[in-house]
């Protein structure tokens, strides 16, 4: 209980269950919740999209998270070797480790642009601290953001700084300290978000924002929007690239996989919804465009910080906390490739972290240029579905909407059709009806749902 944990502060508090939840929420809660969720919701018309996203979290994300954690704990090794190990024990094709390979590549591609956005947050710490938001109009705040995007050198500088932070922690293998910090910083971020929601309530548009978010209008939902909701569920929960598998290998046997996974899903979803409730009242109150795209929070939150009492302080703190949230997620994106280089190529940790980080950083330059010099360059624009998508958009699209759901689909098929049922009953230790519910979901519902969304989008293309 909380009381015994409190009196035990030190040892008891940092039980492995708690450590798992910290690492998993550290990975899950990040830019996906605060930057991406509001803008994809705005682009896809609100309520109906949010409903599909919530459905994807509960009916697809949660069961797959449980499957990943289960596979990790059962295999007890790094993701690639866990899959190989389980496959070998059961005499199955070891090429199942391809799931791990998708994860390694997806993490690498995601981090390249994730770090660029992390860099925006770094840049906004300075803007907030120097009072640049105070009393500004929506136009002035918009100007500030456009001039940041128009300046490749500044973007490069902050992207480099963010990437260096990630590489540093991965190279030194010192995650534990940062993860403990998460147990203080994440609640602090949550409180600050609540403060912004409190401010948002005074704008007079809170009701409109709430109905935008929670009153589904299905005429606004497109097939492509459903794919984005599905992909975002994977992205926000850090699923489909074996991150949760890696963490699961550290989870003690007597701890409930279902309960801990549910906790992570609830925290992650709570942060995203709070971000939505903080941002949309400001959008409507200032006559901004909900579908403004990736810049949405950087054009709205500064308005709130510019108008609320002690806004410079709150704004500075907020963007610092956002950097921490993004940092812990960034680490979990780089970790798989570094582990892979260590295991498969026999490289040491420092070299592989520096090497992988460097290549990722270099790839990030393409995303930076997509925001300015190459903003009109749509390399795959001849494909209807990818019309007008810059390199940055394409990286986001392929990783979140294709690679992660595909990775998750393979995890579901592996758990549902390959692993022995008995092993999974043992690991999950659920009541019979609950186990069956999970099992039917990973066996049938998840593969059919993901498959259907894919096929519909291909046909539409
Ligand atoms: N879940 C993280 C976020 O919401 C991003 C992430 C995706 C991290 C996949 C790891 C793996 O920001
Ligand atoms: Na998230």
UniProtKB/TrEMBL annotation:
<dbReference type="Pfam" id="PF00209">
    <property type="entry name" value="SNF"/>
</dbReference>
<dbReference type="InterPro" id="IPR047218">
    <property type="entry name" value="YocR/YhdH-like"/>
</dbReference>
<dbReference type="InterPro" id="IPR037272">
    <property type="entry name" value="SNS_sf"/>
</dbReference>
<keyword id="KW-0813">Transport</keyword>
<comment type="similarity">
    <text>Belongs to the sodium:neurotransmitter symporter (SNF) (TC 2.A.22) family.</text>
</comment>
<dbReference type="InterPro" id="IPR000175">
    <property type="entry name" value="Na/ntran_symport"/>
</dbReference>
<feature type="transmembrane region" description="Helical">
    <location>
        <begin position="262"/>
        <end position="284"/>
    </location>
</feature>
<feature type="transmembrane region" description="Helical">
    <location>
        <begin position="181"/>
        <end position="201"/>
    </location>
</feature>
<feature type="transmembrane region" description="Helical">
    <location>
        <begin position="437"/>
        <end position="459"/>
    </location>
</feature>
<feature type="transmembrane region" description="Helical">
    <location>
        <begin position="98"/>
        <end position="117"/>
    </location>
</feature>
<feature type="transmembrane region" description="Helical">
    <location>
        <begin position="313"/>
        <end position="334"/>
    </location>
</feature>
<keyword id="KW-0812">Transmembrane</keyword>
<keyword id="KW-0472">Membrane</keyword>
<feature type="transmembrane region" description="Helical">
    <location>
        <begin position="18"/>
        <end position="35"/>
    </location>
</feature>
<keyword id="KW-1133">Transmembrane helix</keyword>
<feature type="transmembrane region" description="Helical">
    <location>
        <begin position="155"/>
        <end position="174"/>
    </location>
</feature>
<keyword id="KW-0769">Symport</keyword>
<protein>
    <recommendedName>
        <fullName>Transporter</fullName>
    </recommendedName>
</protein>
<feature type="transmembrane region" description="Helical">
    <location>
        <begin position="397"/>
        <end position="417"/>
    </location>
</feature>
<feature type="transmembrane region" description="Helical">
    <location>
        <begin position="354"/>
        <end position="377"/>
    </location>
</feature>
<feature type="transmembrane region" description="Helical">
    <location>
        <begin position="221"/>
        <end position="250"/>
    </location>
</feature>
<feature type="transmembrane region" description="Helical">
    <location>
        <begin position="47"/>
        <end position="71"/>
    </location>
</feature>
């Amino acid at each position: 209980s909380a009381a015994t944990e409190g009196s035990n502060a030190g040892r008891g508090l940092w039980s492995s269950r708690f450590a798992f939840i910290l690492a998993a929420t550290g990975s899950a809660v990040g830019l996906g919740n605060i930057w991406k969720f509001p803008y994809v919701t705005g682009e896809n018309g609100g309520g109906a999209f949010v409903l599909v996203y919530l459905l994807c979290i509960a009916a697809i994300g949660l069961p797959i998270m449980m499957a990943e954690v289960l596979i990790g704990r059962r295999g007890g090794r790094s993701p690639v070797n866990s899959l190989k190990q389980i496959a070998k024990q059961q005499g199955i094709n070891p090429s199942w480790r391809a799931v791990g390979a998708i994860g390694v590549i997806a993490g690498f591609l995601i981090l390249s642009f994730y770090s660029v956005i992390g860099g925006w947050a770094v840049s906004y710490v300075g803007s907030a601290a120097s009072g640049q938001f105070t009393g500004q109009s929506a136009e002035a705040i918009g100007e500030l953001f456009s001039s940041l995007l128009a300046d490749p050198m500044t973007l490069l500088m902050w992207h480099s700084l963010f990437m260096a932070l990630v590489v540093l922690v991965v190279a030194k293998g010192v995650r534990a300290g940062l993860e403990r910090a998460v147990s203080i910083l994440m609640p602090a971020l949550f409180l600050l978000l609540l403060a912004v929601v409190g401010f948002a309530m005074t704008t007079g548009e809170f009701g409109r924002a709430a109905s935008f978010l929670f009153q589904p209008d299905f005429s606004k939902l497109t097939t492509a929007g459903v794919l984005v909701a599905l992909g975002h569920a994977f992205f926000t929960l850090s699923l489909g690239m074996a991150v949760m598998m890696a963490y699961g290998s550290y989870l003690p046997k007597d701890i409930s996989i279902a309960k801990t996974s549910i906790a992570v899903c609830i925290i992650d979803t709570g942060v995203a919804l709070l971000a939505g409730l903080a941002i949309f009242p400001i959008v409507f109150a200032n006559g901004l465009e909900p579908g403004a795209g990736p810049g949405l929070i950087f054009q709205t939150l500064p308005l709130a910080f510019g108008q609320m009492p002690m806004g410079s302080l709150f704004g500075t703190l907020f963007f610092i906390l956002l950097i921490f949230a993004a940092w812990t997620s960034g680490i979990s994106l780089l970790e798989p490739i570094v582990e892979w280089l260590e295991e498969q190529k026999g490289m040491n940790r420092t070299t592989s972290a520096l090497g992988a980080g460097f290549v990722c950083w270099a790839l990030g330059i393409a995303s930076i240029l997509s925001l300015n010099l190459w903003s009109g360059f749509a390399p795959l624009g001849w494909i209807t579905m990818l019309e007008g998508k810059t390199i940055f958009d394409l990286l986001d699209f392929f990783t979140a909407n294709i690679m992660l759901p595909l990775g998750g689909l393979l995890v579901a098929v592996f758990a549902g059709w390959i692993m022995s049922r008995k092993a999974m009953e043992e690991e999950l230790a659920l009541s019979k009806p609950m186990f069956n519910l999970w099992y039917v979901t990973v066996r049938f519902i998840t593969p059919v749902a993901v498959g259907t969304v894919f096929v519909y989008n291909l046909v539409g293309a």
